[in-house]
Amino acid sequence: MADAYYIGMDLCSDSTQISFYNDIKREPETVNQLNNKETYMMPNILFYSKESGDWYVGSEASEARFKEEGIILDELYKNARSEETVDVYGKTYTFKQLFVLMLKMHINSFLYRYEGATVKELVITIPEYNKDLFKVLLGFHKELGIGEEHVRITSHLDSGLYYIFNQSQELWINSVALFDYNADGLHYYRIDITRGKSPEVISVTHEDYSAQFNMALFGGDNILMDATFSKIAEQEMKKTYISSVFLTGLGFSEKWMNKSRNILCQGRRVFAGQNIYTKGACYKAVGGEYEEFYRRFFVETKENVIYDVGISSGEEEEDKFIPIALGGRQWYNIHGKINIILDDTDKITIIYRSRKTEQEIREVVKLHGIPKRPNKTSKFSVEVEFEDPRRGAVVIKDVGFGKLFPTTNKIYRKEFEV
Question: pTM value?
Answer without folding.
Answer: 0.91
